[in-house]
Amino acid sequence: MLNPLRILLSATKSLPTRRCSGYVSRMRYVNGLKEDDSLCDAALQSGRILLFHRLSPLLQRTERGTFRPAAFNSSDVQLILERLGSDRSLLKEAVLLGCSEQNQAEFCLDLGELDQAAVEEECEGNFVDLRKSFFLLTGAEAPLVSKGQALLRWHQTSRFCSATGQPTHRNQAGSQRVCSSTGTIYYPKLNVDVTELEDARWFSLEEIDSALQLPACLSAEHVSELGSSSIMSAFMDLNLRFTTERRDLRTLVRTAAQRECPMGDGPTEPT
């Protein structure tokens, strides 16, 4: 009599383990791509590539009237480059984003040197300003294009060593740049502007309150007592990865509390 129940309970307990195992295997796969240029190059040939034009993501309209990031395989991108008279080697500039749940590598590539209208016509999509794209994409897609833009921007602004002024060279995955003179290694630093978070409304006030586990009204002193690690963990739970200063996070939390509190009962500015 108890055997079916035991089987059901054992199967239920194994689900979180399987999810964790899948996540760990994906992270190991991504780390392997970052460390092995030949492996990353092979993954690029079978991966998905999100296209950008001067840091604006390419979106396509679906049959249901919604929008999604335009993703192409390497052969399609090479064909597009050929038709537009560009060198196929531009594909090598693609930057690794991560991998999907199906272990398919995901990359991003900026085609800013090509004519925007020509690329849009060839790809049957439109390049949209990043902030505007947040209103058109789902919650899972918006952080992906944001990460892509941040990585592409970092590579564009990190072509030279800050200490020597010498050129830096990236690995195939784009996970680091190395100074050609001193061998100093630079890693991407992804900064997300708090203003962008509020203007684009990535998360509702309820999601922020739930993630940070804040009461409806807080004083500035209470906000200041929150540890930076707990605040960062809340945003990591929302699948948003970024590095920012502690005072910026306090500003976001303080703004959320002010919106929830009645007039005159909100938190005051810290001294």
Residue windows where pLDDT falls under 50 for at least 5 positions: 192-203, 212-247, 262-271
C-alpha geometry: globular
Give the number of domains.
Answer: 2
- What proportion strand? 5-15%
Sheet with the most strands? 7 strands, mixed
N- and C-termini, Cα separation: 67 Å
Provide the fold topology.
Layout: H1 3-35, H2 37-46, E1 48-53, E2 56-61, E3 67-69, E4 71-72, H3 74-83, E5 95-99, E6 105-110, H4 116-123, E7 126-127, H5 130-133, H6 141-157, E8 168-170, E9 177-179, E10 185-186, H7 194-200, H8 205-212, H9 220-225, H10 228-237, H11 246-260
Parallel strand pairs: 1-6
Antiparallel strand pairs: 1-2, 1-4, 2-3, 2-7, 5-6, 8-9, 9-10
Write up this protein:
The structure is a single chain. With 271 residues, the protein is of the alpha+beta class. The strands form 2 sheets. Strands 1, 2, 3, 4, 5, 6 and 7 form a 7-stranded mixed sheet that branches. It has 2 domains: 3-146, no CATH class; 194-260. The protein is globular, with a radius of gyration of 22 Å. α8 packs across α11. Helices cover 47% and strands 14% of the residues. The longest helix has 33 residues, at 3-35.
Compact overview of the structure:
GO terms for molecular function: hydrolase activity; metal ion binding. This protein is of the alpha+beta class and 271 residues long. The chain has eleven helices and ten strands.
